Amino acid sequence: MPISSSAATLEKKKQFKLHCHAKSIDQNDRQSGKNLLKIASALPAKDKRCLFIRSHSTLNASAITKVQHNVPAFSDSVTVRTHSDGSLHVSRLQEEKETQPDRISLDRKGLVAVPVIDGEHKLRLLSLQHNLVSNLESLGKQSFPTLVFLDLYDNQLEKIHCLGKLENLRVLLLGKNRIKQIEGLKTLPKLEVLDLHGNQISQVDGLNSSTELKVLNLAGNQLKVVNNQDFQGLHSLQELNLRRNKLKKLLGFAEVPNLVKLFVSNNDIHW
């Protein structure tokens, strides 16, 4: 049945009001949108892993950033070649050196030893994560006077050695190796962060000369006792991680007056 003219007029007025209302809402949304905070993407356009973001590490990342502020991502544009004498050498294009003159990543290269790094006199940060490095003899034959950050996470090291030429090193990351004893640190007077989580260490020793040490991570080892003299000399220590050991007794905390963070979960301690 045809709609009367009056009914048609009412219908048009109704549609007009709805249209105006929707337009008003749209304008209000746009106006309020101008006042909202702009949320940037959580990840950068080029997803390069930052130095202190490492898988399976229990080291507090904030501790690293306190030592090395605003560390940008590594670049992995490097070439590893075997010379005629069998030694491995690393080289980079001049353009790459100019872009990032102070840092090199050799992560996941299948390396069994530290290669010779040619022409990198400004090197400050070196990463060798997720390789098969079993000794540091080659590192001990090279000079890195400006190196402050060395990451050897997830390798096959059984001992700490050949660090004598790294007198300015401040951060040493040795998590997830096969280290059984804390040693070879007397030549690192400026060391502030030491990560030894996930090794096979059964005794706290060899740290007395590390007077500048602020962060020590010994989580996931085989410690049963911490004795009175184990932390002697560590007057600067602020954070200590002893999680996931076999500890039954904790002593020696009179030696660490500046300690503010202590982690001891997953042990056999009975308070």
Notes on the protein architecture:
It is a single chain. 17% of the residues lie in helices and 14% in strands. By secondary structure, it is α/β, with parallel strands linked by helices. It has a single domain, classed as Leucine-rich repeat, LRR (right-handed beta-alpha superhelix), CATH 3.80.10. The strands form three sheets. Strands 3-5-6-7-8-9-11-13 form an eight-stranded parallel sheet, with helices on one face. A three-stranded mixed sheet has the order 1-2-4, with no helix packed on it. The longest helix has 30 residues, at 5-34. The radius of gyration is 29 Å and the shape is elongated. It starts with a helix and ends in an 8-residue tail after the last strand. InterPro entries: Cilia_flagella_integrity (IPR050576), Leu-rich_rpt (IPR001611), Leu-rich_rpt_4 (IPR025875), Leu-rich_rpt_typical-subtyp (IPR003591), LRR_dom_sf (IPR032675). Cilium-specific protein required for cilia structures. It comes from Phaedon cochleariae.
CATH topology: Leucine-rich repeat, LRR (right-handed beta-alpha superhelix)
Largest sheet: 8 strands, parallel
What is the spatial order of strands in the main beta sheet? 3-5-6-7-8-9-11-13
The total of helices stands at 4
Low-confidence spans:
18-63, 65-72
General form: elongated
The number of E-state strands comes to: 13
Function: Cilium-specific protein required for cilia structures.
Pfam families: LRR_4 (PF12799), LRR_8 (PF13855)
Protein name: Dynein axonemal assembly factor 1 homolog
InterPro entries: Cilia_flagella_integrity, Leu-rich_rpt, Leu-rich_rpt_4, Leu-rich_rpt_typical-subtyp, LRR_dom_sf
